[in-house]
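Q: Can someone sanity-check these two? First one:
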Amino acid sequence: MANYFVERGWLALFPQRRGRGKSGGAYGEGLSLDGSGYSCDVDVAIAGFERAVEDVDAVVNHLRDRSDVDQQKLVIGGVSRGGILAIAYSGMRSGTFCGSINFNGGWLGRGCQPHELVNPLLFERGAWGCASMIVCLSLPVSST
């Protein structure tokens, strides 16, 4: 998807979790206190989300300082936590991105009962910003 936009002169931001995969830093987006796995605690989950927003803020601030980045051609998209982050961030920082794409994203999975509270809350953060965008998509991935 990112290549599609890049080939047309857009910059595509695809957030990845800090400390996961090949990214640096310590992971801290909602682990249980003993570090054994994800926490289902609402406060821990929201704090992890806010940390991820701070990371995207840092990237966006860097992009704003670059003369080779067309500020009118920025899109953001992601999968899982990156997907819900893309939608929510776009609403929280309206006017930053022209498009936002979520591929099967949610902050908490169905194994955590508070997902019914946390995920809608975070999607609501994106609702107002998406109203002013060219495109704002949330795409579920079929398990079949």
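And here is the second, same format, sequence then tokens:
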Amino acid sequence: MPLSEQERRALEELEAQLSAEDPKFASTMVSDPNRARRRRRVLLGVLALAAGLALVVLAVTTRQTWLGAIGFLGMVFGVTYAVGTDSDQRPDLHVVGSSSAQRAGGSGGAGRGFPSVQGGFPGSAKAKAKPARGASNSGFMQRLQERWDRRRRENQGW
């Protein structure tokens, strides 16, 4: 039975008051449209896990190795499916330091379609021209070396 116009307005007023008084609680009370999809994925994954486990137990009792392998694969698939995300919910991953032109399809890695690496690969000219990483930490490393030498002198080696 649908709500009357007066009931609908009263409900909207209550929602507005709740949002104004406690926005954090109000945001947790909003229904999640993907909840049913996630629940279905978990349920199907658990069912696949249970079916795979049943196949493994059946394989052990009948000594059918191939049936146990199929059961194990079913268990792995079930767990992977249950904890996985939908393809439309996956994050859009990009290479750190790549420009938007490279992400759009520009040739970053010497024309092979790979994004360029900022520091270059070990042994390349870019990597050799790059200043040493420890240059900024030389004061710290120097202090550590001095402490080590002082302790060795105080303890006559050990």
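A (reply): Looked at the second one. The first helix runs from residue 5 to 21. Residues 138 and 144 are 10 Å apart (CA to CA).
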